[in-house]
Amino acid sequence: MFSAIVIDKTGEGQSVTVQQLDERALPEGDVTIAVAFSTLNFKDGLAITGSSPVVRKFPMVPGIDLAGTVIESSHADWKAGDRVVLNGWGVGEVHWGGLAQKARLKGEWLVPLPDAFTPAQAMAIGTAGYTAALCVDALVDAGVTPEQGEVLVTGATGGVGSVAIALLSKLGFAVAALTGKPDEAGYLEALGAATVIDRAEMSERGKPLQKERWGGVVDTAGSFTLANACAQTRYGGAVAACGLAQGMDFPATVMPFILRGISLLGIDSVMAPKARRLKAWDRLARDLDPAVLDTIAQTIGLSDAIDAAGKFMSGEVKGRYVVDVNA
Q1: H runs (alpha helix) in 74-222
Q2: Which helix H or strand E contains 320, and what residues bound it?
Q3: Three-state DSSP class for 133?
Q4: Alpha carbon of residue 218 to chain centroid
């Protein structure tokens, strides 16, 4: 038997409870894992609160991330005792996820847990931090350098934003942090932000082409924020877009792209191929100071995660929630 958060359909919508399940209830897969830690992401918040129809199969164990140890494997890449990390692949949506003490998954979805991190630290990073690394990789691969000017990070106090600031500052970039929480300026500066900007400056419709400010951008907001970021990006710069916290629309024009030659880079973390995942985790192991994770993460127990999801969705949380599934 093992404990898990279970989402199920009811006549009024859905129920979310912590249940004791038999291991025989686990879904199909070729690797069985003893989960040590999971985490809460935006998508987990949507699933647990029912704010959006993220879950497409019931009953469902949510949790798009996990870190743990292989118990049993028939997959050639893994053996009992291996430490592994999972991010994405539809887990927590169509396949039981990480907010449980055990999981059964496909071996090709897993990557090794880097020696630089404990399982708890890996979940302080989670999909949010892994996505931040994908964004930074994309900007670097696009040729963005510190000499091109400041890099803007939107949604700066969130999980993606927090890790992106830490990574970019380590690489020598001057980082401008855009946030709706100006009282968290000290937190952002401790992560490495050189400038803190009120998100109100970029959250309304702006001109299609604006004063050049940014050598690169990591955007988690979408909508007017992303459009303004593109309109303010310097000639030859790049914008990595990975979120839609403000909205999924993109009310922009082609002018920044054809007059300034900027690039808009779409970042997908869910189905990213393994080589890209390994590269992102290598960057995190090399460039992210584990001490930063103590600043951005707080640990809760499995039974606390349901209430925490509501706080997450209401914007009451900065940084990351790490879930100790055995607490």
Answers
A1: 119-141, 159-170, 185-191
A2: strand 320-324
A3: helix
A4: 12
* Strand-pair partners of 193: 175
Residues 6+ apart with CB under 8 A from 273: none
List of the chain residues with pLDDT < 70: 317
**Kind of pairing, strands 151-153 and 175-179?**
parallel
CATH 3.90.180.10 fits 2-113+292-324, yes or no: yes
- pLDDT at position 132, please? 98
Give the class (CATH, top level) of 127-266. alpha beta
Q: Which of 291, 280, 282, 142 is nearest to 217 (CA)?
A: 142
What is the residue extent of each domain of the chain?
2-113+292-324, 127-266
H/E element, 124? helix 119-141
pLDDT of residue 119: 97
Residue 314: what pLDDT? 77
Q: Which amino acid is at 311?
A: K
To the nearest 10°, the Cα dihedral for 130, 135, 140, 144? -150
Q: List 5's β-bridge partners, or say none.
A: 18
Strands 214-219 and 151-153: parallel
Quote the CA–CA distance of 31 and 227 in Å, as a whole number. Answer: 43
